[in-house]
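Structure (tokenized):
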């Protein structure tokens, strides 16, 4: 007869949720590893309000057509492209970035992926991720 170890039973539901979160994190890390040397990551801020998680990317000088935003599981993927500007004359200093921009961001699990929306104003892409409610783990005494 097996002895009682004193541990609480681990339910399949909790296990599946944790495995899903780990897969999502690994997917985000894989996407970061796919960067080419010519790609750069735009500056980003992420903050939380009572109702939303908000992610802001600095993308000055981009057009709406050159920005692509996708959600894959719990990973937000930003792809953008800014062509090099053609100027007459010789550059003395070049500090502005151009080329392909890529950023993969893991979003916390309490976000509703179907309700994510974005707006682009004054060179800032603002992604609003509404929360779907607190993630509650049921604890059951046996």
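Design, position by position:
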């Amino acid at each position: 007869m097996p002895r009682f170890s004193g541990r609480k039973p681990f339910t399949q539901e909790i296990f599946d949720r944790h495995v899903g979160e780990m897969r999502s994190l690994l997917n985000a890390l894989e996407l970061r590893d796919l960067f080419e040397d010519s790609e750069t990551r735009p500056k980003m801020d992420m903050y939380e309000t009572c109702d939303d998680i908000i992610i802001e990317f600095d993308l000055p000088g981009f057009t709406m057509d050159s920005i692509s935003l996708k959600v894959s599981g719990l990973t937000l993927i930003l792809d953008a492209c800014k062509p090099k500007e053609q100027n007459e004359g010789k550059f003395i200093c070049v500090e502005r970035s151009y080329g392909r921009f890529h950023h993969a961001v893991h979003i916390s699990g309490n976000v509703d992926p179907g309700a994510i929306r974005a707006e682009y104003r004054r060179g800032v892409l603002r992604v609003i991720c509404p929360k779907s409610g607190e993630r509650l783990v049921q604890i059951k005494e046996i």
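Reviewer-requested clarification: The mean pLDDT is 76. The two ends are 19 Å apart (CA to CA).
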